[in-house]
Amino acid sequence: MNGERCLDPALRVSPGAVVVVDERAPKLRPGALPESAIAFLDRDVVVVDKPAGMLSIPYEPGDKDTLADCTRALLRRTGRRGSGAQLGVVHRLDKETSGLMVFARTLDAKRILDMQFRAHDIERVYHAIAHGAVTAKRVETHLITDRGDGIRGSYGHFRRPRGVIPPEAKRSVTHVRPIAALAGATLAECRLETGRQHQIRIHMSELGHPLVGERVYIRDYAGPKIESARPMLHARVLGFVHPRTGQRMSFEREAPDDFRAMIESLGPSRR
Q: Which stretch of 25-34, 143-152, 154-163 has the lowest confidence by average pLDDT?
């Protein structure tokens, strides 16, 4: 578009733009990461900006072009492979969530980062676009794999609690803060005190504000739904103590084009 290669399906085409399609161009390798996806790299860790739609790691046999695969390929391609080809997984993002992840490059780094994640010492801040008018709130629940209707949720939210909290329930804490009111939605900051699977998506839904684009945790929502190709969730800030130097590090990446396009399309609220 206008002489620049465009790979973003959410990019808006302005009036008068010149669009050229080259049918004979070489096929793009699926899952390739640009060098700009690397937010930080040294011999111990690599911090990567994961695109939405890419698995963090394989979940089933045959899963390919995961973020781990593509990061290894990028390090080989740029001659920065380092001492080993393996990347240690210390946390994950959902396939449709964009944003920052860290991989360990040594066994020592993996062990130390694992301890930080278990102790909830990692700084993790997300931006989300959620239905309705979100207000500031600290949410603390105990998440279970089946709340009573086959999906994850907070113990006692879907069904009246019976007895003590089950031992398999995971204490989960999210700090929610509105950033900007949009038409029918809110741009919100979600800061994780703990990091459980689907924690933000579940907590926002149980507050009555499911994410825009949510497909699973929206069945209880009766308000008008805003359509989106994916849940609007972006891991914006990631901070940890470097496993070798002991230095506190923090990284931040802007949300991708589809997230910003959704904010623009909704526009400021008139309420």
A: 25-34
Pinpoint the alpha helices (H) of the chain: 67-77, 107-118, 199-206, 257-266
Instruction: Choose the catalytic residue: 44, 49, 69, 94.
Output: 94
Confidence of residue 28 (pLDDT cuts 50, 70, 90): low
| Separation between Cα atoms, residue 203 and residue 179, nearest integer Å | 17
Residues 6 or more apart whose CB falls under 8 angstroms from that of 267 comprise: 182, 183
**pTM recorded for the entire structure:** 0.85
Give the 3-state secondary structure of residue 241: strand
The 3-class SS string of 70-133 reads HHHHHHHHCCCCCCCCCCEECCCCCCCCEEEEEEECCHHHHHHHHHHHHCCCCEEEEEEEEECC
Q: Which residues of 222-239 are buried (b: 16+ CB within 10 A; e: fewer)?
A: eeeebebebbbbbbbbbb
Per-residue buried b or exposed e for 133-147, using 16+ beta carbons within 10 Å of the residue's own CB: ebeeeebebbbbeeb
At position 234, the amino acid (one-letter code) is: H
Q: Is 80 exposed, middle or buried (0-12, 13-18, 19+ CB in 10 A)?
A: middle
Residue 94 is a catalytic residue: yes
What six digits make up the tokens of 260? Answer: 């910003």
Tokens of 181: 């009111």
When pLDDT is averaged across residues 90-112 and rounded to a whole number, the result is 96
Cα 253 vs. chain centroid, distance in angstroms?
11
For residue 82, the model assigns a pLDDT of 59
